[in-house]
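The instructor's notes for this session suggest beginning with a concrete chain rather than abstract definitions. Hand out the sequence below and ask the class to guess, before any prediction is shown, which regions might be ordered.
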Amino acid sequence: MKKKGGVLLPILALCFSLMPEGPLVGQEPPLRFEVRECGGCVWLKGNTHTHTTESDGDSSPEVVARWYKEHGYDFLILSDHNVLLDPATLSQLVDSTFLLIPGEEVTSSFDGKPVHVNGLNLHEWVELRTASTLVGPIQANVDGVREKEGVPHINHPNFGWAFGASELSQIQNDRLLEIFNGHPSVHNQGGGGYAGMEEIWDVLLTRGKRIFGIAVDDAHHFQGEFSRDRANPGRGWVAVLAPALEAGPIMESLESGLFYSSTGVVLDQVQVFEDRLELSIQPRGNFRYTTTFIGPGGRVLKTAFGPEVAYKLDSPVAYVRAKVEDSGGGVAWVQPVFVQLR
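After discussion, reveal the predicted structure:
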């Protein structure tokens, strides 16, 4: 596997075959995965949700950015509550190996329920908006981010048990949703009759909504003890396929689903062909790996073991996504690949 600056070069390939002009009588219509090309792209590791002393974090923007840079991240978005920090103030930390992208956590509420929407790659502050229904402020703040030419992602629906699939299915012009948040108060797994974030994600996908799952730190605590009950960094991140360490290409790849999310598992390759999805997992020590290929309704399509796994498209499904789990509890979520007629 070739490397460039320590970043693994993925290989995305198209697989072409001669097909008849139409399906044969009595047979299922031929299907294919949507194949998204990204020539010359590299994996870029980043975090899109973290906090500093500009809102409710315990460390300055300089300290927070330095932590991520020193721990091997390629890019970072500082997303303080209703604060847009000018990354030029941290220019001494930015170089050809590390990028700061301006962001803001647009923080609103409805009837005591927290409604938080991240704005990525913003160049103007987004003022929070309220509304007369629970769906209202979610949509209004997504719209506010779009109006400033930023990219929205909806944050931690299970924080404060604020909202779920019913509300999210009504939101328009959004592509990104947190499916893992490292804050200890977020309840990623659900409970007590509330769905977990993966279940919510599959409900939305099954209903036809094209949305991709983000893993984030939501870090607040960089000082003192690192423990499960504190919001420490390094718990959730994304690896984005992009042609350059620049904000524009990174945003385009995020909104196209050209990334995976992780709490520790690293992938060398994600290859999408017309008839199969292949994954190559970077081995770590004597860890073992289980990959679950998942379709509509959260249905398990296939389970595979080892560092090299694949799913062959041989039955009609609307999408296939993959979840890789290691024997130490780490997870990687591969974005859904959608299926079309040839």
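Then share the key points. The chain is about 15% helix and 30% strand. The helical segments are 61-70, 135-147, 165-168, 197-206, 247-256.
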